[in-house]
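Comment thread on ticket #2218

A.B. wrote:
> Attaching the input chain for the structure job we discussed in standup.
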Amino acid sequence: QVQLVESGGGLVQPGGSLRLSCVASGRTFSYYGMGWFRQAPGKARDVVAVISRSGGMTYYADSVKGRFTISRDNAKDTVYLQMNSLKPEDTAVYSCAATKSTYGTRLIEYDYWGQGTQVAVSS
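C.D. wrote:
> Ran it. Output below, let me know if you need it in another format.
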């Protein structure tokens, strides 16, 4: 079992920045590919960004390319999501997840999920 706890969400104005963190516990963090997903009100959960076990491969949804950066620190058992130039349409609950695969871009590939952290972008 892997436990995931997100933090860093909040209310920010359009154009602002936030950094989300997700701390893992329970198993060796570097064994898992990691991803950030989001779910806006009334919409399905969708992938935002994913990163491979070593951090050497990343993937971004088209809607966040050039604005968001995913990274991980295996020594700290933590994955990050740096979000810049935030837009109102980025408002959602953001969750991190862990996959036993090296790398995964589909929700079904993920085995463990955090509870999520709310991000609201509004003036």
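A.B. wrote:
> Thanks. Noting for the ticket: DSSP finds no helices and eleven strands in the chain.
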